[in-house]
Design a protein that fits this description.
Elements lengths: L1 E7 L10 H4 L19 H6 L5 E8 L8 H15 L4 E5 L7 H9 L4 E5 L21 H7 L8 E4 L6 H10 L5 E3 L10 H15 L4 E5 L2 H4 L5 H15 L4 E3 L12 H11 L5 H16 L2
Parallel strand pairs: 1-2, 2-3, 3-4, 4-5, 5-6, 6-7, 7-8
């Protein structure tokens, strides 16, 4: 089965520094990351695909050490030139930095860069907090965000449901910028109250036509996930955003700690098996190809 995976990572610990992989096992949202505290190559990723044909991929920045963002992009470009993938890159830039304009211009000069990600998750629980501040309330960051549209760069947005009202306001104020919500909006629970809060927040964000969603990362959020557990999140996301704005993604190797590639993509396939072939083509490859222009 042909798929386009619009959210995966590779890293080479001999080439670049990744503090989150080398400074001690993580205890955050994805738990102990010991299994992935090693070099993860493109070949290893593709070898896990099983019966699924990974036709194209989009690499998303993997939290390199400060100041190595352009180096990560250059390294990925070299990998792609030799091995043919990744087909597109979502690079890192601190949009609150005074150097944001120069960094964005530097990233844009790489032919495969299609967008930027700067993780925005904030939470009162330190184990769930990813960002040093609420960037969507930072005027310098907002000015940096406004630079994306003129450079034809999308923004991969990683937030929690509690941040979606602010994200919707940002999307409305920057309706010329494509925003891609990461990891199904990162629901923090699958009990009825948590699901309803997630759905209400997603509903508001879905009203912004420039926002699309990667259905991914549910294993990262629910380590003991099953197909039936994630089914409501997948179907509700597709109901709110439609197949034209939804795309399945792996979030490997992070989500490889919670399932095999075959198990994950088989679950996706089963959950949408009753949809038309046209809708399935969109969520498995066409939406990602259009959004990331590959």
């Amino acid at each position: 089965m042909k798929i386009v995976d619009p959210h995966f990572h590779i890293w080479d610990l001999s080439q670049l520094s990744y503090p989150w992989l080398t400074t001690g096992p993580s205890t955050g949202v994805f738990g102990d990351n010991t299994p992935i505290r090693k070099t993860c190559t493109l070949g290893e990723y593709l070898a896990q695909s099983g019966s699924f044909h990974v036709a194209k991929t989009v690499h998303v920045e993997a939290a390199v050490a400060q100041g190595q963002d352009l180096q990560e992009t250059a390294w990925l470009e070299r990998v792609a030139q030799v091995q043919g993938q990744p087909n597109a890159i979502v690079a890192y830039c601190d949009l609150s930095s005074e150097a944001a304009k120069a960094k964005l211009d530097g990233q844009r000069r790489t032919t495969r860069v299609r967008g930027i990600r700067q993780i925005l998750n904030t939470h009162d629980d330190e184990l769930l907090n990813f960002a040093p501040q609420e960037f969507m309330e930072n005027d310098l960051w907002l000015e940096g965000f406004e630079l994306l549209s003129a450079r034809d760069l999308s923004f991969d947005m990683q937030i929690y449901p509690s941040q979606m009202a602010a994200a919707a306001q940002l999307a409305r104020q920057n309706n010329g910028t494509r925003i891609v919500l990461n990891h199904t909006g990162m629901p923090l629970g699958h009990d009825p109250a948590s699901f309803n809060a997630w759905r209400a927040a997603m509903s508001e964000l879905s009203l912004c036509d420039n926002v699309s969603v990667k259905i991914s990362g549910l294993g990262m959020m629910f380590h003991d996930w099953t197909t039936e557990m994630i089914r409501p999140f997948v179907r509700e996301t597709m109901k709110l955003f439609g197949a034209d704005r939804c795309m399945f993604a792996s979030n490997f190797p992070v989500d490889s700690m919670f399932s095999t590639f075959e198990t994950l993509w088989t679950a996706y396939r089963d959950i949408v098996s009753d949809l038309s072939s046209a809708e399935q083509d969109k969520v498995f490859h066409q939406t990602a190809e259009r959004i990331y222009r590959i």
